[in-house]
Amino acid sequence: MKVGLFIPCYIDQFFPHVGMATVEVLERYGATVDYPTGQTCCGQPMANTGCTEDARPVAKLFLDVFESYEYVVAPSGSCVAMVRHHFHDLLPDDPRVDKVGSRTFELCEFLTDVLEIDSIEGEFPHRVGLHNACHGLRELRLGKPSEQMATPFNKVEKLLAGLEGIELVQLERTDECCGFGGTFAVAEEAVSCRMGLDRLADHKSAGAEVIASADMSCLMHLGGLARRKKLPLKLMHVAEILAQSTKTQPTPTP
């Protein structure tokens, strides 16, 4: 199985270790991972800000780069949601949108839905609070949103729960936004920070040592607030946890 690895901008620039952890996890389960160097952004920042004309050529380049791959996998629910659900708005007449979009997956849903992995072998003896990022939850359906009356499920939680020694703490509000929202965090700084501090308080109250998420953008926002408040919390992408979950005493990274 050949996988085209799509790495979001902020992971490429600020958290490259998350990209490497993603490769390690995919290769552990038999995927042949290729990183096409011609890739750039998916266009989400421009599209969210209303700069449609600027986002359109970026989306077209994404299709040019990834159309030949059997699968495209990214450690980001928001970027995958952009490709799968919003490229139609940018390129309504491009037949490749459906083709590439249907083969583009967030890491955890690729593991559960494509590779059909029920449990990850490994050990992570820490108290973990799961932050369910908005795009992954409500656009990719990685879990059941709290506003829906349906059978509960959560693909990210399912993968983490199989690790030995892990304790997934129970939050009061399991799927509330962290306040990042891309350019929203700049345009509405005070509201964004207040929302983030509220989420940190929920995790801290639940006794979390580590906050985990499938979206590094949320963790970047929460991590910055945690450092400013000097809170004893570690922020880790799910890919990092899965990559480190060996029998050799994994240690959360700051």
TrEMBL record:
<dbReference type="InterPro" id="IPR004017">
    <property type="entry name" value="Cys_rich_dom"/>
</dbReference>
<feature type="domain" description="Cysteine-rich">
    <location>
        <begin position="128"/>
        <end position="222"/>
    </location>
</feature>
<dbReference type="GO" id="GO:0016491">
    <property type="term" value="F:oxidoreductase activity"/>
</dbReference>
<protein>
    <submittedName>
        <fullName>(Fe-S)-binding protein</fullName>
    </submittedName>
</protein>
<dbReference type="GO" id="GO:0005829">
    <property type="term" value="C:cytosol"/>
</dbReference>
<feature type="domain" description="Cysteine-rich">
    <location>
        <begin position="3"/>
        <end position="83"/>
    </location>
</feature>
<dbReference type="Pfam" id="PF02754">
    <property type="entry name" value="CCG"/>
</dbReference>
